[in-house]
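On clarity, I found the account of how folds are encoded harder to follow than it need be. Since the whole study asks how a given chain folds, the encoding of that fold should be made plain. For illustration, here is how one protein appears when written out as sequence plus structure tokens:
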Amino acid sequence: MPREIITLQVGQCGNQIGGEFWKQLCLEHGIAPDGSLIELPTEQQNGNTGTILSDDRKDVFFYQSDDDRYIPRALLIDLEPRVVNKVAHTGPYKSLFNPENLFIASDGGGAGNNWASGFRQGEEHHEQVLDMMDREADNSDSLEGFVLTHSIAGGTGSGMGSYLLEKLQDHFPKKLVTTYSVFPNWDQSQSDVVVQPYNSVLTLKRLTLHADAVVVLDNTALNRIATERLRISNPTVDNLNSLVATIMAASTTTLRYPGYMNNDLIGLLASLIPTPRCHFLMSGYTPLAVEDGAPSTIRKTTVLDVMRRLSQPKNIMVSADTRTGCYISMLNIIQGNDVDPTQIHKALQRIRERQLVKFIPWGPASIQAALARKSPYVQTRHKVSGFLLANHTSMAELFQTLLHQYDAIKKRNAFVEVYKREP
């Protein structure tokens, strides 16, 4: 029985990473840009050509229209038309989305990087958006929850995203809400939003109170990974978005290619979150590859090697030092078609013997490991790839940086009147 998930993409950043995420899902499930199915690749075995069987669950994220095309369960929400138009009207995947699920504010002025403006406009338009959510929810057999993609520094993703989080909890109290939240670049020379500390602190409160899990995607760390690991001298927004899409697709593989464990969202999160407030998760992925076919620096991948790399700070997509502090919980999703469970067992034993990861003293030191199949549609260079979702105490460093920036501008009461102006 499928446990459907509805994706809400809010604001410029949310729609950009959402667009990349759907592109990645279509590739992995063999869905063409117009929503039709691509023929499965054939496999040569002993001279016989056989079709590879694919028993993936497309209906977690997609549903079928009357003409048998696959349509994403996604709502594209923004207060200005530019990005939604690019994703859903002019881009290569323009005929994939349901036109009824696009929401652009009628005045189209955007929120001007102001959280209060985004929140107010969210309130003004909430009936329309909730109506869209209800329609999608009624379209599902057993809805499991919502995924929200947004950034916390701008206006729409943070302000309207905050408002939607509050509304989701009122409207669908029993459904899970997971967010993929992009944290801003704290280096002032690279940031173009002066008031991002205000927006971030206001959004963080809502993420703490109203979300069940927050996967933190940190722009500073994404930039570092793109320059150091992928050797891109000046990473563009598209480079970073494809990194985020890889993370989002990898974190949902066990839902889309179900095994006997972790095949629903609650099963994934239950083992990671010890107390409800402690739900900010960091992620990591290895081996990362660039799309344009540049040679990867990693030559051979084994389960132990992938698991060891995942615990290294340089592969983690949050700029917090995991060498200090300790892990509260940790989930590794290992993707590979010829991975034997005993290899995972041995790798876990080695990591435990060598004490490569440090756990909290007051809880069970368990590394959860889930095995997922690879998509038959996507040819990868590496036999094994791994994804990490972890709850780590060093996440506090990120919040500390954020509060430090907030104090610096609040001390001078800079730009406060812009927020007070909003009703």
Q: What stands out?
A: The longest strand covers residues 143-151. The two ends are 46 Å apart (CA to CA). Confidence is low (pLDDT under 50) at residues 44-51. The first helix runs from residue 11 to 29.
